[in-house]
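We give the entry.
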Amino acid sequence: MELLLLPWALLLLATAPGPGPWPVAGAQETCANRCGDPGWPCSCHPTCFGLGSCCPDVRDFCLEIKPYSGSMMGGKDFVVQHLNWSSPQSIVICRFKESVQTRGHVDSLGRVHCVSPLLYETGRIPFTLSMDNGMSFPRSGTWLAVHPSKVSETEKSQLVNETHWQYYGTTGARDDLSLTWDSSALPTNTVTIELWGYEETGKPYSGQWMAKWSYLYSLATKVPNSGSFTFTPNPAPQSYQKWEVGALRIISDTHYMGQKDVQALWSNEHALAWHLGEDFRADAAAWARSRCLAWEALEDQLPNFLVELPDCPCTLAQARADSGRFHTDYGCDIEQGSVCTYHPGAVHCVRSVQASPQFGAGQQCCYTADGTQLLTADSTSGSTPDRGHDWGSPPFRAPPRVPGLSHWLYDVISFYHCCLWAPECSRYMRRRPSSDCRTYRPPRLASAFGDPHFVTFDGANFTFNGRGEYVLLESEVTNLKVQARAQPRTTPEAPGLQDKGTGLTAVAVQEGNSDVVEVRLANGTGRLQVLLNQEPLTFAEQSWMDLKGMFLSVAAEKNASIMLSSGAGLEVSVQGPFLSVTILLPEAFLNRTQGLLGTLNDNPADDFTLRNGKVLPPTASSRELFPFGASWAVENASSLLTYDSRFLVNNFLYGPKHDPTFQPLFPEDISPSPDQETEAAKLCGDNYFCSFDVAATGSLSVGNATRVAHQLHQHRVQSLKSVVSCGWLEPPSNGVKEGSKYLKGSTVYFHCNNGYSLEGSQVSTCQADGTWSSPTPSCQPGRSHTVLLSIIFGGLALVALVALVYVLLRRRKSNRTPWTSQP
């Protein structure tokens, strides 16, 4: 690769410290493009920065590490790449977040190791490295702390039959418990197995509420590192009874018991039923009931977190399509067989992506197979909101914002107390009522795909074959920016030649001061490459990342989901030779968008608004719309896209963001070749976008990819259509109702218990205006109409029977022959 030197790069070359001279790549050249080149170790690269690789301050010696991620519980050993140290006796200190320090070491090969600490947050954690016993920390890097549920199975120990651990003692069982782990993950012959407890102390929401893990006691020491351990639990001393949530930790016997921040394997956090005392084992239901009542009393003193939660989607289709605001709950996933332990009867649940702003709470919504939302008012399987969002939220260590763990204390262990260990579930459900969907508003959807074609938020569609970089969307609401790069396709049948059309090859997004995420086609692989702040990410370890101002999820390097703090979301996928992009915006963006995807205001007539404010009519042809697209070229000073190759530098960084020399084919100028016309008609039918792409590229496969992308857009639009809900309708006191569907057209029936009579309508129907046709009737004391009718008809039958007997007797008497005497 030819070295490019930009003016600012020359300055860096002159001022960069450390082992030099440092070669400098031009135009934000990324580490990935230089790894392996002689003299270009990534850790020495002064212009790149990002996850687990380099730092933004060029005065620092930037660190690349492997692995780059691990559980926020800590104990993960990682190696600093491209840094060999000749003295194994050197004292290595790794400092995280400027305050948490762990002891590292230099191995026999001269490689420098660090150990990740126990943390109370997820996301990218900055760290620095000292090789002089803490006198200086000149080297910097980034560690990715991950939610415990999302780390690989080899990084943690497993509770064999975990359900048994969490119910131990409730059924009188006194069986052995077993723990397994990957013995190769700990370089030691013998291990210590410890119990740690989790608690949150202080006053909730006061700023003086603190999360804390505490070492409790060791289950065993000098255990062979065989990968398994079996034991029979004994009741813990009374002094340990306050800890009801905890985890097991396995460490080398070379460390003292309870030593913090050493290499370790942790189990899942879980309810410590097996650890509780004789009072629990003697009467688990009574013990749990007292805890349930205590939780109930505490809940009544805490603020009402429900008021700031988003409303649940009305249907399963809406919930799965609204991917900017809701994400699959891994505990109840229809794609994974719908194993819904806590919501039997549901097939799928989703959770709100973002925690609520003031209380850090989360929403959960669960659905049946027919797409109906389950409500706790009807079933203990219903959707239950969470005081502690499972993914946590800043400022993490201020509960209930600790990822996973606050959720356990506020929402999960209380479910065990009230619903699983004691028959008090109605108490839990009253304080975790489901959100119905009366105020739910589906997001609005816009897409770009194929050659490329655009469907705006208001449903206008057009084709724009510009070559350059363009603004798909801008909004002042949250300073949201979405930009895309469009390039011609190189014709596979004739390498070196390019189509007269273009397609999207890269998309970048930033909201406010969030990270910048760019998703682009990896050259020639048909896969996605994701860049974080212009540094390539690898998903060998994690497919889910908690980033600054957004969550990122990547599936099989073919689909990327970006969920933003505002509730906006992006879905980027590979469709044929180009990217397909879908953007979802919540109602807050109404009347506040601009760019190629139009003005979100339910009026498609103004969607073709140029940057200068001029509006083109909806009937404008593609040729007439070309200036509209060109006007939304990205401005150099605001570009979010990366230029890390000679091609991109020459064609996009230095050239105009819209190439005025590129002359595309317009739809009105082309038609399929005669030999393809029949096949194109059969493939595309009435899909105009498909037909255009076959004609423009001569490729049926390109046309088919466009057809599929358009169909996916249409399906999603259909899934997100608004529906009318009348809300939950209560049953009558001393009666029951039949029916748990509350959308337009649904019907509910009412019945009274024996001894009560129904006053009001027996049937109520959800009407188009969102109201019920009849209110809930009442059941009044007294015999029900059915009983009265039974008595009346029974009495009448008895009278009729008596009358019949009387008539028969009279008839018999009148027909009798009298006796006479013989002479």
Notes: Residues 153-281 form one domain. The radius of gyration is 34 Å.
